[in-house]
Design brief:
mainly alpha; 3 helices; single chain
């Protein structure tokens, strides 16, 4: 069994090696999270705007129904249905990408893998069963 002073260079090397990788992974996952937020905002804005236009055109359709004219109802109704379809597709776009995992899932997986590597270097860092490991709460998260 190695002493703590003998393990220190190995622990520092492991920390230095993974520090850059954590930064890079954090950057990649932050960009992914921002892309998801932007997608939801754009989809919600399109759905909201098109929905408001559909309601306005629906009201116009009712007004046009009281007037005389050969194709006025079909034109206003077609526009109302068109904007309603745009609103539905904007809403579907906003919630469309759910196949990927939770934000920062890769970073969390790398962190746990590194905790296991550190535990192999120094078993005293491993928590006893039932106790949180290295600053994590009882749910295993920080």
């Amino acid at each position: 069994m190695l002493s703590t002073l003998e393990l220190l260079p190995r622990l520092i090397h492991a920390l230095a090696r993974h520090l850059f990788a954590y930064g890079e992974l954090l950057c990649v996952e932050s960009l992914e999270a921002l892309r998801r937020v932007r997608r939801r905002i754009v989809g919600a804005a399109v759905a909201l705007l098109a929905g408001m236009l559909a309601v306005g055109l629906g009201c116009l359709w009712i007004i046009a129904a009281t007037w005389d004219g050969p194709n006025r109802l079909w034109a206003v109704g077609g526009l109302c249905i068109g904007f309603l379809l745009i609103a539905i597709s904007g809403g579907a776009y906003a919630v469309g990408e759910r196949s990927r995992g939770a934000p920062f899932e890769q970073l969390r997986a790398e962190w746990h893998a590194d905790l296991q590597e550190i535990a192999r270097l120094d078993p005293t860092l491993v928590a006893e069963p039932g106790a949180p490991a290295m600053g994590a709460d009882s749910g295993g998260r920080k």
